[in-house]
Amino acid sequence: MQQWKKKQRALLLEQRTCLSTAERNDKQVAVMQTIKKYLTKQAASIIGIYWPIKGELDCRDLAAALIDDGWQVAVPVINKETKTLDFALWAPDTEMTMGVWNIPIPVQPTWVNPSYFLVPLVGFDEKHYRLGYGAGYYDRTFAAINKPVKTIGIGFESARLETIFPHQFDIAMDIIVTEDGLHVRNYGL
Length: 189
Hints:
The protein is of the alpha/beta class. It is built from four helices and 13 strands.
């Protein structure tokens, strides 16, 4: 199964990088507008975002707009001891340095516990399980959180799979957002 996931991951990442600039921009706008519309209906809180790598959709402009709407925004920082993600407050003017995998992290982090998380998807399935890069950081992080949170997976509709063959530690996203819209998980599945 690990070989299958590795092969799917490579295929989906290649598809993502082959998008034209116009296609990517159109999909980016559609996804971020859908997320903004959804979050506008929620009480402002703390939202964890991600720093885009490997062709992921970029939610930083959305994050800046959310800050203007009264939200606090946090970025993930890999905790090397627990192999989970800690979240540090971020704003467009935050001084950053390079962290693990050269992903920028705040120089002077203020740690927070988000109530919402925007989570990048390499792939996803009908039951809202995500295919990530394979390190398990998000699953371990969500398993360790002891309060209600809302997980919002962000990706491309072309990354939809019949199944990712989830294992017992995988945690399904509450919502998936692609350029085709917002998909709320059916908890009866």
